[in-house]
């Protein structure tokens, strides 16, 4: 990628961040985190939006004396009303106390909603002949009644128009509230309902509006009173207590002395939630950052990397939020919990990188990047996958958090891989001149060995031979510890498992000042325990009425069956379009009776005071009579009263009723059936208590939709990262053991699962996968050296894990119970992941990995190699390379089956495609071939690359050929030269045994088959395959072709057997073009120094056998067999090592032309040239 | 307004009952006052006829009705109207208002009344037949006292703010010759007033305890407005 492109990508990212910042909005409504199609959630949202008035602030005022409380409440209301730019309305006493005349409209409307028969009856009652009698009755009642209610009503209702059935039902909503809504029974505690004149949609607008209200209240309550200026209250303060003031006027000092003012209502909740979330997040981020800095300092004692890391972490957090804004638009403040999650993960990437750079001072930054990037990228991809899958869980909040974390992880991986190291190691920024070019896909492929890093360069501080005993003890201790953890956790979980909190407590707003004030209101006003809400909706009045009636019937049945206690539905108040239509004529008639009623009343001694209500009633009827649609009252009092339980959106009507549970506790299970039935009727039953149960049910129902892809993605990512079943299994084992530890600790501490801390699961999965990938790939890179791995990556992971645990631990002290539980569970889970990955996993890995990969250099068979080992490592340079995972018995068998079943052309075509992919994505391995070819092309890299590319394609075809042969397909198309075959016959006739020397050139394995067809029984000297099953499989396959196999392995006595066979005249084959692990002799090969195996010369000296060089290469029309002239030697001279070296030089030089002719079939997949050449 | 009216009328009813037995104190009438207290201390019961005049804001003319009252310490019975329209029974633990014509009754349990203005008004009942000045002064503040034609009229103001919200002041008049009650008047915050003028006052005559019992027929509807 050119530097221009690099800059271009970063510029694009910056633009995206800028756009995201512009689009970013915060949402503090916790309900937006829940499934929008869940009836309980819908009901709660409707309640919050339309009935818990979003713009309504409740101010409570407690004074030592009832009169003082009333006076101050009124004064405060007046003061607030003056600020018309802030306050739309203040209600501090029942509106009908301030404007009783307005009650007339509501009552007139209620009459208009009565059945036509009842309403028509009014015309009789108000007939001219009846009026005098009605007034006399009223006067008698006023003279003799001792009933306060009766006296109050009749005085202002001389015609007794308030006697109607609907008022009985209204009482539940109005008169009760009249007593309870504004003051406690002793009058010392009063409420003011303040409606904002500004939009309070966002939490910032709530914050600034509340600040202004606080200032007004502070000013009103200041000793200077209305004229005084008091310092504004702190934004965080929701309570004002005036202590007795000295030297103030009696009135002012007396007014506000010991008066407590508090605030609650939706704006306060919004501001409080947002502030507490901000505080939690800033504390969490602050503590995590501090811990990161501290641990980093303690570990490395360097300022620059520490500060640079912190700066990048902050940059990542900000950019993630901005990109989250770009993708999501509105981000919930609860989802800001991503910050703590992200810090814990992002720091991993940087620290692992940095630690690797320290551990390998000889490596350039690009080499370190190349070595570490696959670990980071696969870990990031796995974690991102796990978090993105949360979007399938049906909880929007969880999905949003998952998306934010995924964005953040992608950004973290990118930033940490590309940006973190260069400024810290400026001298190592540039790649080496001879360093291969790393393509973008190289960063996804785990290297077998870090560039520029060899075994000797490792900071190995351990003496392996000395440490061997200690290692054995370490293995035993690790296994013992693993067993103890497993058994301990299992034992705990056998007795008890962590419970599941089915309530919505984790989602509820924190119990802050707003909630405390609300609780105080409930207590002081003697309100019943929190009821459940029934929200009935409908597109028009008739539909709402129908649904109300149905809901009424259902609730009535539920009450009768004691499923609920009692309920209140405003069914009787709801206007019925049919009644109103029928009453319209009557209303018109009644609307004209105003003058008549007035005249009669005045004549009977009443004055105009008594007729205020009557006049309003008559006026309302007149309006109702003239109306054409469903008639609704419009004055302030009516609106204030009706909006308590009725509201209208642009699309529909919403009506609220109250349901009181049968006991003092809401039983979600008992109410579930009722809720379902009501939902079918368009009525939503909801409460915070029901919310948890309903949401949890949803989560449980969709659990498999989340878990299945999550597990599949994790396994897939692990596969791409490792491509070894054992390592994937180990990764899963770490996750399982961590999970067991977490569950056991949760059980012992009494923690429970809830809707919030369930989010910990993907996080644990993500970090666990991260750690296992880091550790296992490091083990691969360092040849299973535990000391080196723990010193580099292990140390880094301890630092990362420590910071993550600290970050989440700090979240554990959050004021929000859900966030606190999430923090605690994450801290324990990540801690378990870290400790198991660093201390137990490496030993598990050693135990499960093939010995050849774990141990250091082993003795060579001096040139005798199996096909797979030929392709892989057995020389000092490649001792830490892993065998190509292709060499597994299972895959080999699959290949054998496929070539039997499918057409050979098709299989070859597919194999070539695979080879192309391999060429593209296994660049590190392919580079080995290129490096091997460079000396043959006079360091012409392009030519070498072309040949190497061809080689990979031909190798694919060759493998198919080999499988065909091993599966029993006979080879007939030999291209032989009879005179050359004579060389073989002549040599054999001497009877001293024949050693066929071959190279990794062409289809050398076919040699055995050819000789069998020539009547020669060949024995191949080889090493064991990486997989014992494959070794056996191949021995058996050769045997079927008449070829024997002698596995040399590590056994030096095997050579004795070889010599014996040769002396007995046997025919053996050996390959010679790979440098041995030890004991090689320096020769010149293609004009370059080469460490050659002296195996052939040694056997010639020991057995006096004939040495014949043979190659078999593939041509379009068959297999071309080349038999070189027999290599002659002086057996006695071979007693000298130099003579053996000379013979070896002679042999290999003879092969050079053959190799040059078919270099693209010279399958050298491990480095063959000396490192210092 | 209506709320105040309601509260006012509750207070009116209650204060009317307590006012008949409430004493006043003024410096210049200390002697008469002390004497009146002495009489009250020795009074075990009394009864009288009365004329009740209600001056309401909504009516141009006052409403007048007659009735009879019986009082013992802690108990009283008022009968209002001819025939009786309303009976008010004060028992140690409750107040009953009975409407014989409507076959209805309202019950106000005195112990269950929540703290607030109504309780304050009901607390004035405790001032009924005060035995000492301290009790009286705890509930009322004397605003003025005037003597005319052997009739001492004292204007008292409830000390409780909440009680004062609906009863601005109370006037009690008693005869200085025999220290019997002559009249009571309550003035309400909205300008309304209620006056009782007593005649045929009988002191310390035995009263049938059945007078203070409430025997409600089964067809009566009983409600508790404060519940």
Number of helices of chain A: 43
Oligomer: heterodimer
Broad shape of chain A: elongated
Task: State the shape of chain B.
Answer: globular
Strand runs of chain B, count: 12
* Strand fraction of chain B: 35-45%
What's the CATH architecture name of chain B? Clam
Average pLDDT for all residues of chain A: 79
Largest sheet data of chain B: 12 strands, mixed
Computed structural class of chain A: alpha/beta
Give the low-pLDDT segments of chain B. 1-27
Number of strands of chain A: 21
- First and last CA, distance of chain A: 31 Å
CATH class category name of chain B: Mainly Beta
Count of DSSP-assigned helices of chain B? 5
Helix % of chain A is: 55-70%
What does the largest sheet of chain A look like? 7 strands, mixed
The chain-level mean pLDDT of chain B equals 76
- Estimate percent helicity of chain B: 10-25%
Which two chains share the most extensive interface?
Answer: A-B, 38 and 39 residues
Calculate the terminal CA-CA distance of chain B, rounded to whole Å: 22 Å
Topology:
The complex is a heterodimer of chains A (1173) and B (227).
Chain A: H1 3-23, E1 25-27, H2 39-51, E2 56-62, H3 66-82, E3 87-91, H4 95-98, H5 103-112, H6 116-125, H7 128-144, H8 148-156, H9 165-173, H10 175-180, E4 189-196, H11 203-221, E5 239-241, H12 250-256, E6 260-265, H13 266-300, H14 303-328, E7 330-332, H15 338-359, H16 365-388, H17 396-420, H18 464-495, H19 513-524, E8 532-538, H20 541-560, E9 564-568, H21 577-590, H22 594-603, H23 612-626, H24 636-642, E10 646-648, E11 653-661, H25 668-680, E12 683-686, H26 688-701, H27 703-722, H28 725-749, H29 760-781, H30 786-811, H31 817-848, H32 851-854, H33 867-871, H34 889-901, H35 904-921, H36 923-933, H37 941-966, E13 974-975, H38 978-989, E14 994-998, H39 1007-1013, E15 1018-1022, H40 1028-1040, E16 1044-1047, H41 1053-1063, E17 1067-1071, E18 1081-1085, E19 1088-1092, H42 1095-1103, E20 1106-1115, E21 1118-1123, H43 1137-1157
Parallel strand pairs in A: 1-7, 13-21, 14-17, 14-20, 15-16, 15-17
Antiparallel strand pairs in A: 2-4, 2-6, 3-4, 5-6, 8-11, 8-12, 9-11, 10-11, 18-19, 20-21
Helix pairs in contact in A: 1-14, 3-11, 5-23, 6-21, 7-8, 7-22, 11-13, 13-14, 13-15, 13-30, 14-15, 14-17, 15-16, 15-17, 15-30, 16-17, 16-27, 16-29, 18-28, 18-31, 21-23, 25-26, 27-28, 27-29, 28-29, 28-31, 29-30, 29-31, 30-31, 34-37, 34-40, 35-36, 35-37, 36-37, 42-43
Chain B: H1 2-19, H2 30-42, E1 46-55, E2 63-72, E3 75-80, E4 86-90, E5 94-99, E6 104-109, H3 117-123, H4 133-139, E7 140-148, E8 151-158, H5 161-164, E9 167-175, E10 181-188, E11 193-203, E12 221-223
Parallel strand pairs in B: 6-12
Antiparallel strand pairs in B: 1-2, 1-11, 2-3, 3-4, 4-5, 5-6, 7-8, 8-9, 9-10, 10-11
Helix pairs in contact in B: 1-3
